[in-house]
Design goal:
Elements: H1 5-16, H2 22-36, H3 43-51, E1 56-60, E2 67-73, E3 78-82, E4 89-107, E5 113-123, E6 128-131, E7 136-152, H4 156-163, E8 169-172, E9 175-178
Antiparallel strand pairs: 1-2, 2-7, 3-7, 4-5, 4-6, 4-7, 8-9
Helix pairs in contact: 1-2
Length: about 180
């Protein structure tokens, strides 16, 4: 049976899966980079380009729990700083350009939380970026429409709804600070 690039990439991720480690992250990243090389003529990718979904689940692994989503974003779309709770995540850009800024969380003597900007990177087609548990970042689509894949080690929606484990930050007094759950 001939497999498409999506099926081959998922099979590859399943073959390297295990507890969080350098090797597991590197293996998953390699398979996502292969996914980015899929020909636009493959039906699943052609459909994503035609439909331009804001959010579409491509795979939910019944054994390991990881999730692969596709997102189409228009130029200017900004997602404020957030973390991914206990999960690690890999973003992969298929088309367009996404800027991602990373932050460090600081706590002042009065207990208030503020973010300090670390750096910003621009990601174009074929590029990936890994965020480990606790890493904080934002995203901005600078050239769209952008098609990106977001691979998460677990279902972030249930993590957020059930356990309020995802932290989102809000702009207050010209600084990013922890929002309320």
């Amino acid at each position: 049976m001939v497999r498409n690039t999506l099926e081959t990439s998922i099979e590859g991720i399943r073959s390297v899966w295990g507890p969080l480690s350098t090797e597991v992250v590197a293996g998953c990243r390699r398979h996502l980079e292969n996914l980015l090389e899929a020909p636009a003529t493959q039906a699943w990718l052609a459909a994503l380009h035609t439909e331009a979904p804001l959010n579409k689940e491509l795979h939910r692994d019944p054994t390991h729990g990881f999730v692969l989503l596709a997102h189409t974003e228009h130029a200017g779309l900004y997602r404020p700083p957030h973390d991914h709770g206990r999960s690690w995540v890999i973003y992969a850009v298929q088309q367009g350009e996404i800027e991602m800024t990373s932050y460090a969380r600081t706590v002042a003597p009065d207990g208030s939380v503020r973010l300090v900007k670390r750096d910003a990177i621009s990601m174009g087609p074929g590029q990936t970026q890994v965020y480990l548990p606790g890493d904080i970042h934002d995203t901005r689509c600078v050239a769209g429409p952008a098609l990106l894949f977001r691979f998460t080690e677990r279902d972030l929606k249930s993590e957020d709804v059930a356990g309020h484990r995802v932290t989102r930050y809000v702009r207050q007094d010209n600084a990013w600070t922890a929002g309320t759950p």
